């Protein structure tokens, strides 16, 4: 059975009406970048809980979660109304195997994410452990609208930090924005647009985004497809 601890809310940042970040401080056990925790609130006498990935690096003091509010959801609308000083429950021990140690050897690591699934990649990139073995890293974030690319400034900062090793590419499906590809990632892989935009080869078709795949030259970690 999971052990729960109380977390103090430090900030609720609303990126859009539906997307928000929850930053809390809590006495949790150490976790590995890419893992997730469960958040919970007591609502009408019931403990309502959901799993969310860490966005922050394990070395950071504050824990950050990137969420989308589901209008009819049991938990997310309540989490969005929290204010600094409020309490939320979090599992003391993280879980999950979506971590760098599980990634096979390859030259180019492709990180593909839609929506809030960008979180674990940002945790990995901010921590920086286990990434030296890749010659190139490609971070692809797909969203419906440009306003939903909440962490683009952080992605750009990380790109500078990695000094040419990290390539970022945004994809927007419902409007055309300069610098972003338009459409959906599986189709952009299949028609070669993603490769042309990044200048890196991905010998794959749309079926490859359903699982981690590897060859001598590239590997893919799909998230939220």
UniProtKB/TrEMBL annotation:
One short Pfam name that applies is: FAD_binding_6
Q: Which InterPro entries match?
A: Cbr1-like_FAD-bd_dom, FAD-bd_FR_type, FNR_bac, FNR_nucleotide-bd, FNR_type-1, OxRdtase_FAD/NAD-bd, Riboflavin_synthase-like_b-brl
Q: Name one GO biological process term.
A: cellular response to oxidative stress
Entry keyword set: FAD, Flavoprotein, NADP, Nucleotide-binding, Oxidoreductase
Q: Which Gene3D superfamilies match?
A: Nucleotide-binding domain of ferredoxin-NADP reductase (FNR) module (3.40.50.80), Translation factors (2.40.30.10)
Q: Plastid: present as a keyword of the record?
A: no
UniProt protein name = Flavodoxin/ferredoxin--NADP reductase
- Organism, by scientific name, is Enterobacter agglomerans (Erwinia herbicola)
- Top-down, what is the taxonomic lineage of the species of origin? Bacteria, Pseudomonadati, Pseudomonadota, Gammaproteobacteria, Enterobacterales
Gene from which this protein is expressed:
fpr
């Amino acid at each position: 059975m999971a052990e729960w601890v109380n977390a103090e809310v430090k900030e609720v940042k609303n990126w859009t009406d539906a997307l928000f970040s929850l930053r809390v401080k809590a006495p949790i056990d150490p976790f590995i970048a890419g893992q997730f925790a469960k958040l919970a609130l007591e609502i009408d006498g019931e403990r309502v809980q959901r799993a969310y990935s860490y966005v922050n690096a394990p070395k950071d003091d504050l824990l950050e979660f990137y969420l989308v509010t589901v209008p009819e959801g049991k938990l997310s609308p309540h989490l969005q109304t929290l204010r600094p000083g409020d309490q939320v429950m979090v599992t003391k021990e993280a879980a999950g195997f979506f971590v760098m140690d599980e990634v096979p050897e390859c030259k180019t690591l492709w990180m593909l994410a839609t929506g809030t699934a960008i979180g674990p990649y940002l945790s990995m990139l901010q921590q920086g452990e286990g990434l030296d073995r890749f010659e190139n890293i490609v971070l692809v974030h797909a969203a419906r609208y440009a306003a939903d690319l909440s962490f683009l400034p952080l992605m750009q900062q990380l790109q500078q930090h990695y000094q040419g090793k990290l390539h970022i590419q945004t994809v927007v499906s419902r409007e055309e924005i300069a610098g972003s590809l338009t459409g959906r990632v599986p189709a952009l892989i299949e028609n070669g647009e993603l490769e042309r935009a990044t200048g890196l080869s991905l010998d794959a078709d749309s079926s490859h985004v359903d699982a981690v795949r590897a060859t001598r030259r590239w590997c893919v970690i799909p998230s939220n497809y």
